[in-house]
Design goal:
Elements lengths: L1 H34 L3 E5 L11 H5 L6 H10 L3 E17 L2 E11 L3 H4 L4 E4 L4 H5 L4 E4 L1 H8 L8 E4 L2 E9 L14 E5 H4 L13 E6 L5 H15 L11 E3 L1 H44 L1 H9 L4 H37 L8 H27 L3 H6 L1
Main location: membrane
Membrane topology: Multi-pass membrane protein
Organism: Pedobacter quisquiliarum
């Protein structure tokens, strides 16, 4: 068991790191899939800053405005939807004597359902007339609905939002935690035209942005190129002059996280590799002891006609079997940790079959390498000398 411990810890470390990375990558991809692969955000600040980031140039940039939104809606051709969004963060929603705090109230234009993938557990999205006539209607997230109505139907009930009474027409389906913060569980959505009477939707504190979803039949590069040229035209930016807006996309975050994941993978290989190296020496040591203890048996086998390869394979098989036992113990520990996180911490960690195969493969390779020299030395023993030992 002590000899297997190094292999067990090494496999546990490597597969744990790979499983964690796979889980984070899967959750990130799920967030990206909510938007679709052709979604772009027109914002004041970029999501990713370079090494020579000159923040003072970005401070003076104008926020996206309704004028920008209306001009883009009239000019862009390769898009399925364009929406203007502004968010009043950390607000309190009330219903009778109950309330829910920390809700993000989003003011959105009618095309919001075309730029975001929305699923409803109850009710519907705004109608065209509700969106354009400033109707006091609201859609709330699953967590908000549960906090206000405790499992009762929310549709048709009036809640107090930003000092006004609004009628609930829809409840978003529960999505759970989201890596990119795009979950609608703790959000409330109201029509943009109605929101103009509640707060200044173009003010920087409400984080105005324009979301553009390109057509599925058109590549992201083409949509981005059209949007970029149109925005420069709307803002009347001269050729060669710097942009006064940022075009952000989820692939920017994906690329940065991929770089981070690669570094984490390397760290996992290094830490686990040292443990496996120690474990490999432990297995080799045990095999040398095993050869020493069974030298006379090897001599008897060879005197009865056993070939060198037969003796070699005996000890190779034993070394590989030992490493496999250590690897399987490591995988069992990983599985137990994933189950503990899933059921106790309510955070699902994915143990992919490819990682299981990798763990088993590493164990077999280490077993073959560690056991070869002891097995080779056993196969080369002189039968007469071996029997005398």
């Amino acid at each position: 068991m002590l000899s297997l411990l190094g292999i067990t810890i090494g496999i546990f470390t490597i597969i744990s790191v790979f499983s964690a990375v796979d889980t984070l990558r899967y959750k990130l991809q799920s967030s990206v899939d909510k938007l679709g692969s052709n979604t772009l955000f027109v914002q004041k600040w970029p999501w990713i800053f370079g090494g020579d980031f000159q923040w003072w140039k970005f401070v003076n940039r104008p926020q996206p405005t309704m004028r920008d939104y209306n001009a883009l809606r009239d000019r862009l051709e390769h898009v399925d939807g364009i929406s203007f969004e502004a968010t009043a963060a950390n607000r309190t929603l009330k219903y009778r004597s109950g309330s829910v705090e920390g809700v993000n109230v989003m003011a959105v234009s009618p095309d919001f359902n075309k730029t975001w993938t929305l699923d409803f557990q109850e009710g519907r999205y705004f109608t065209e007339s509700e969106g354009r006539s400033a109707s006091p209607v609201i859609i709330i997230g699953a967590e908000v609905a549960n906090g206000l109505f405790d499992g009762e139907s929310a549709i048709g009930k009036q809640i107090k939002v930003l000092g006004r009474r609004m009628t609930v027409v829809g409840v978003f389906k529960k999505e759970g935690d989201d890596m990119l913060g795009m979950s609608q569980d703790n959000n409330a959505v109201i029509p943009l035209v109605y929101a103009k009477g509640l707060f200044d939707i173009e003010n920087e504190q409400y984080q105005p942005q324009i979301t553009v979803r390109g057509k599925e039949s058109v590549g992201l590069e083409e949509v981005e190129s059209e949007l970029y040229g149109t925005m420069r035209s709307i803002r009347k930016i001269r050729p060669g002059a710097e942009d006064d807006f940022s075009l952000n996309k989820t692939t920017m975050l994906s690329n940065q996280l991929d770089i981070m994941f690669k570094m984490v993978n390397i760290a996992g290989w290094v830490i686990g590799g040292f443990s496996i190296l120690v474990g490999g020496f432990g297995i080799a040591n045990i095999m040398f002891v095993s050869v020493k203890e069974r030298t006379n048996i090897i001599g008897i086998q060879k005197s009865l006609g056993a070939k060198n390869y037969f003796i070699l394979l005996q000890f190779m098989f034993e070394a590989i079997a030992l490493c496999l036992m250590g690897g399987l113990l490591g995988l069992l520990l990983v599985f137990m940790v994933t189950q503990a996180f899933t059921h106790l911490a309510d955070f699902e960690i994915i143990l992919d079959i490819n990682n299981v195969i990798m763990g088993i493969s590493i164990s077999v390779i280490i077993g073959a390498i560690s056991g070869f020299w002891p097995a080779f030395s056993a196969s080369r023993l002189d039968p007469v000398e071996a029997i005398r030992s």
